[in-house]
Amino acid sequence: QVQVVESGGGLVQPGGSLRLSCAASGSVRSMNGMAWHRQAPGKQRELVATITSGGSTTYADSVQGRFTISRDNAKNTGYLQMNSLKPEDTAVYYCNAGITSSRWPYNNFAVWGQGTLVTVSS
Fold first, then answer.
1. How confident is the model at residue 120 (pLDDT cuts 50, 70, 90)?
2. Omega into 14 within 30° of 0, i.e. cis?
3. What three-state secondary structure class fits 76?
4. CA–CA separation, 45 vs 112, rounded Å?
């Protein structure tokens, strides 16, 4: 019924930049709060950044000052701009969003994407 799809991952050299996108599709009335998480090989999934429907943001200490989370409500899309990338940023990045369905009774869903791989290596 509703889903989010990440894109924008890839291979980048240390110090480089990437922008990830998270697009909601299906019967979407609105995309509410959303977050980016990541999971590195052999490690637990960790929260990277969050943004509310009003645009308030939070960041993990490890990415503060390097990553920027944003959103375009008209497009029901969120973004994660990643600058000054480090090898330790290598992970699968997942988008998680609260979606309100456009179909009555307008239920709310917590939706996860399938992930996009970011590899930082020279």
1. very high
2. no
3. coil
4. 13
